[in-house]
Design a protein that fits this description.
Blueprint lengths: L7 E2 L2 E10 L2 E8 L5 E7 L10 H14 L10 E5 L2 E7 L6 H5 L6 H20 L2 E2 L8 E3 L5 E3 L6 E2 L20 H4 L6 H17 L9 H10 L5 H4 L5 H10 L11 H13 L11 E3 H15 L1 H10 L16 E4 H15 L1 H21 L4 H11 L5 H16 L4 E5 L3 E6 L16 H15 L6 E5 L8 E6 L1 H7 L1
Antiparallel strand pairs: 1-2, 2-3, 3-4, 4-6, 5-6, 7-10, 8-9, 11-12, 13-14, 14-16, 15-16
């Protein structure tokens, strides 16, 4: 129905329109009995699919919101129905939305943290009551006159375990902030809300969403398969730790994200307090599984008789009888892994060490194929959706972003006409090592295996051109592009 300024709805007089969306139109109004300003959301029945149950959806929304009494959630003041059109009354918040503020560009770290903290508080409260928002985005983050933050429009929320409101099962949400879970059939979950929170934090820090596309389907594809852009490239002043928090919040697979909204904020706070260190400040760490596959490859290479001598010489006798666990917990120290690779290289030489890295990479990817919630899905996405000429850069960026999430590696991908370059500003192979030449042969082999699996190309030519062991600022590996290899052959 048409609503105009001056019109009365029960105890409310309409003063103007605030905005219009997929669920309906929001009006500013005055409550006549007490003179306060309110916002009235009118459900647009005509805009909803004929097969849906708009009234059921609306009343479900009201009941859910009414249960959420929290300092940072917009409360329900009243609801009703006029001429068959339901409406909901909420406080009018006059300082606009986060979307309005983002039109002015990127935000300072301090402001981003404060806004994220209040949003996360609201989300944590809702999630603790098994309620999912389903449409976290800047236009649903509102400010009052003293800059308190409120999360609005739980109209797309539903209680976990209840039946979907629409019979069609159509996706509900905003593509710019929609988790990959939707496209993979994961539905609306708390982790999807956390992904959207991560996207919104990225937007606040970068001044733009992580992905842009001409169509909705291309945008959804980007969330599913494209690497998360590195925040430090867009904003060099962002600490690596903050960028790593955003990377993890936006991980493609729910199991790799933070478990709760509160965890996201705590990680952000820690990263801002210690901008030049990792989460474990005294040492650098990598996933246990990296050490597991390295030691498995070594056992295959040297046999059971020599492994005890090798591990003892490397100062790791505790792993003679028990391997590191095969999981992605970031617990294996860089200095221990570096000592392992250094010892192997001193005994067996550079070529054998590079071959060892290839074998360890193969083992990890073979295991990933048996665990389709891990890298195998990324490999499939790359091979099936990315143009041939873009696979190498895309695959390296995917690896770099993944490694930044699950380890203390700090990686930047660059390229020229002949090669792509993998630049590590922390390294688990040469950590604490001093030499006159590059020494990271193990990682060169590992990269060869990873790129081969991720792109489907021939085994690439990988060469370390600078190395921190000999005093360089970073370990940089040149990965020859396939077309260059074709010309050589």
């Amino acid at each position: 129905m048409e609503i105009v300024a001056g019109q009365h709805l029960d105890d409310y007089q309409i003063t103007g329109q605030i905005g219009r969306g997929g669920m309906g139109t929001v009006y500013r109004a005055t409550q006549l009995s007490n003179g306060r300003d309110v916002a009235i959301k009118m459900l647009a029945l005509a805009q909803l699919p004929a097969s849906s149950n708009p009234l059921d959806r609306f009343y479900r929304e009201v009941k859910i919101i009414a249960q959420l009494q929290h300092a940072h959630i917009v409360p329900v003041l009243h609801f009703g129905e006029i001429e068959g059109n339901p409406y909901i009354v909420m406080p009018y918040l006059g300082r606009g939305s986060l979307l309005d503020r983002l039109k002015h560009g990127a935000m300072p770290l301090k402001d981003t943290l404060e806004i994220a903290r209040q949003i996360a508080s609201a989300l944590q409260y809702a999630h603790d009551r098994d309620v999912v928002h389903r449409d976290i985005k800047p236009s649903n983050v509102l400010f009052d006159d003293i800059d308190n933050v409120y999360l609005a429009d739980f109209g797309l929320a539903k209680a976990l375990g209840s039946k979907p409101i629409t019979a069609s099962g159509s996706l509900i949400g905003t593509p710019e902030y929609m988790a990959p879970d939707w496209a993979n059939g994961g539905g609306s979950t708390q982790t999807a809300d956390l992904y959207a929170l991560g996207v919104m934090i990225y937007h606040m820090l970068a001044g733009q969403p992580p992905y842009k596309a001409a169509t909705t389907m291309e945008l959804i594809r980007a969330h599913v398969a494209s690497p998360v852009p590195n925040l430090t490239t867009t904003r060099p002043d962002i600490p690596f730790g903050v960028a790593a928090v955003v990377q993890r919040a936006m991980a493609k697979y729910p199991s790799q994200r933070y478990g709760t909204a509160q965890e996201v904020v705590v990680a952000l706070e820690n990263a801002m307090k210690n901008p030049n260190t990792s989460e474990k400040a005294s040492r650098l760490y990598m996933p246990n599984s990296w050490a597991y596959y390295a030691m498995t490859a070594i056992k295959h290479a040297v046999g059971a008789n020599q492994i005890e001598t090798l591990l003892t010489r490397a100062g790791l006798p505790n792993y003679i009888l028990q391997d590191p666990p095969d999981n992605i917990q970031r617990e294996f120290p860089f200095d221990q892994s570096a000592q392992l690779f250094r010892t192997f290289q001193e005994v067996f030489g550079k070529r054998s060490t590079q071959a060892l890295g290839r074998h360890a990479g193969d083992l990890s990817q073979q295991a990933a194929v048996r665990k389709p919630d891990r890298a195998a899905k990324i490999t499939t996405a790359i091979l099936s959706t990315v143009p041939h000429e873009e696979r190498l850069r895309f695959g390296l960026e995917t690896l770099a972003n993944m490694y930044s999430v699950i380890s203390d590696l700090r990686v930047i991908i660059e390229e020229d006409q002949r090669s792509c370059f993998w630049r590590m500003e922390t390294c688990h192979v040469c950590n604490g090592w001093h030499a006159d030449e590059p020494v990271c042969y193990y990682f060169a082999g590992w990269l060869e295996a990873m790129v081969y699996w991720m792109t489907g190309e021939r085994l690439p030519n990988v060469t370390e051109i600078t190395c921190m062991a000999k005093g360089d600022a970073a370990c940089i590996f040149a990965i020859e592009k396939p077309e260059q290899a074709d010309q050589r052959t």
